[in-house]
Amino acid sequence: MAKVIAVVDDEEKIRDTIKAFLINEGFTVVEAENGEAAIQLVKNQSVDLVILDVMMPIMDGFQALREIRMISKKMPVIMLTAKTEEIDKLLGLEMGADDYITKPFSMRELAARIRTVLRRSTPEEEREGLDELLTRGDIEINLSTYEVKVGEELLNLTPTEYKILVTLAQKPGRVYSRLQLMNSVMGEAYLNYERSIDTHVSNLRKKVESDPAHPEYIHTVYGIGYRFGKKQ
Predict the structure, then answer these.
(1) CA 126 to CA 110: how far, in whole Å?
(2) For residue 198, what is the domain's CATH number?
(3) Contact (CB, 8 A) for 226 and 168
(4) pLDDT tens-digit readout, 76-114
């Protein structure tokens, strides 16, 4: 199942930007606009990690962190702020934050920090295979067992369909030409049959997409090939 990330920031534009990126990275995202709303999220929903802005009205991030730690001592929390003073970083860490990232930051850095904190906070007995699970929206690909699920449904993919899905899903947003996909999943001997990739993609969409005519995940880039990326 996709990890649930709570994004807590009073700026809607920042929440939307983080949410869009993390969903495309395979996370589930819930939102709160201030510390009090964040407390209710943690109390009432299953959350795996909290991204918590420091400077917020009603209840700031430090107060919210204190309350979260009273609810759960093990809840992973990454503090997010425009402040750069060393004392603020130390204060957050001393109060129990797992990591601290200052604005501006890259989305890829944030995603990397999230995965690192989640890995640290995952019990050792559950950690095996964590890096072998590729999650993109509702799609879950187990790279060890070659199983693919959409939600709770286990799909029956052909080896070629599986390879196409993994190739696309491992690099969301990258556009693959038909030749590149064919070479990746079937090898150079099949390059003369590059248009057959369209048939494999069509069959894959029927299994992965809820509405193959209007795909959420596997998109056609006309005149070039295909890319993977969940619509926001």
Answers:
(1) 23
(2) 1.10.10.10
(3) yes
(4) 999 887 766 666 666 667 777 888 888 888 888 898 889
- Sole residue written with tokens 């890829």: 108
Of 81, 100, 127, which residue sits at a domain end? Answer: 127
Long-range contacts of 71-76 (CB under 8 A, 24+ apart): 71/39, 71/42, 71/43, 72/42, 74/121, 75/42, 75/47, 75/49, 75/50, 76/48, 76/49, 76/50, 76/117, 76/118, 76/120, 76/121
pLDDT tens digits for range 137-163: 889 898 878 889 998 899 988 778 888
Same domain for 17 and 113?
A: yes
The answer to whether the pTM exceeds 0.85 is no
